[in-house]
């Protein structure tokens, strides 16, 4: 069996995740601001729309995982979705950032419909693009390398949007002009679509699925009988909240705590430097130390650097950027380590249940990310209501403390809470190696 992954596939996969994260982060950063401040949808209505849509989207992830596990075509198990999905995501992204005009009630309805369709379209591509990394090679090192490249690509995509989106918006009309968001979304959607389709056309699946169809009941048991996965799920929900809370609140934080939306560019730079450094050193750490221990230490240190600016002075820009950079480093480490642990959970499933279930396993990851995103948006919405937030309101102490708490202190709490579920993760390096050796013998 061919275990090597050619350079062209590595480049294509990195680019695909770069494009996907450009789309995702533009949506995460601006959709709530676009709805509340530009479409003038009441904060309460936006919160309800986003929470309901995101909850449905999270459930939809699990359904998509089961569909993907039952897909069998001459092109592969996941590749077809990486050609169809990007087109759907791109169209719905543009629709979400379009001001259709009309009455206030019609604006609310159209906003809700477009956002729900975007979430469903995103799911069609999100699960396959991650699940394909688990079948790209039977070699653990190659798979971990692809995951790292994918995460690096995703981080670069995040940074491109974080750093460049404000510049793009200003060039196209300004951050408070609805048409600027429509044009920016169109540009980002086109670039993201091309990159993701290239991934679908280039990457090869080297671990073939079982010839027999997988019963629905067995698909479910891939989760409930997989103890390592269950422990990891609890931690992933909490650690995903760290980035999601920062994503949904950074526009408000930059405007109302630091006093200038332009600081988003510098926040993006702290993210890229921190995340990339953490991701780059993670494979070496994984080869040297127990993944569980790495994960726990990263969470403790990430919590410290997250809380530091809030305790000292949330309005201090320099301290904030430095602390965020260190915090993002440990976020990068937890991202790579947890994804590698997901790979271990897939091997554990094949060893114990006779069925890998890549689709359902990775759908739990995206489900948890979407669920944490929903919780983050819900918390932001409730916080804004409690702060009596209205668009273009003057800066006051309550608003500064509120957005400062969401940006700094709440992620610090989430980092520490993440440690509790991972303590139940019992797989040791020797056990994982033994499982892989046995699986290699079975496949011959």
TrEMBL record:
Keywords: Membrane, Transmembrane, Transmembrane helix. One of its GO terms (cellular component) is plasma membrane. InterPro entries: MFS_2, MFS_trans_sf, Na/Gal_symport. One of its GO terms (molecular function) is symporter activity. The chain crosses the membrane at residues 12-35, 41-59, 80-102, 108-131, 152-172, 184-203, 224-242, 262-282, 294-312, 318-346, 367-390, 402-425. GO terms for biological process: carbohydrate transport; sodium ion transport. PANTHER family: MAJOR FACILITATOR SUPERFAMILY (MFS) PROFILE DOMAIN-CONTAINING PROTEIN, MAJOR FACILITATOR SUPERFAMILY DOMAIN-CONTAINING PROTEIN. Belongs to the sodium:galactoside symporter (TC 2.A.2) family. This is Glycoside/pentoside/hexuronide transporter. It comes from Sphaerochaeta pleomorpha (strain ATCC BAA-1885 / DSM 22778 / Grapes). The lineage of its organism: Bacteria, Pseudomonadati, Spirochaetota, Spirochaetia, Spirochaetales.
